Amino acid sequence: MSREIQNTGSVYSNKPWLSFYPEGVAHQIEIPNITVFDILEKSAYKLPDKVAIIDGERELTFSELKNKSENVATALYKRGFRKGDRISIMVPNCLEYVIAFFAVQRLGGIVVLVNPLYTPAELDHILRNSESKGLIAFKDQKEKLEKIAWLMRLYLLRQIRK
């Protein structure tokens, strides 16, 4: 860290950006002590039938997203994954990714993002380096995972059809 930032007389301690805030915007906020999944749970309670996610022609309401995420979290728990475990998600940007993300959050796990386009060597490196205990992927990645002996720690997602 530079000395300017550590110095209490630096431009950062003066916070000049605050002068650009519109009137009525708080300069400090209180951050509640809740999890990301708590936010989804609250949304599912308050807005159960509101659309939470749109992926092309597919949609999920907050209630559906919460329920599907809890189902995946339960399946992960039954496979031995626990709070604090690093779990990689190798799913493209789609509805199933969001479900997997919230499932890991529900479990209390740590999400490790993995590019589905990685080669087996790249995948092996990132999974070992991140100390992932498991991986969530679509079954079209199974062959790639066989090459690096990751099938025992694999949770395969099915695509949701609506």
UniProtKB/TrEMBL annotation:
It holds the Pfam family AMP-binding. InterPro entries: AMP-dep_synth/lig_dom, ATP-dep_AMP-bd_enzyme. Residues 40-141 form the AMP-dependent synthetase/ligase domain. This is AMP-binding protein. It comes from the Bacteria.
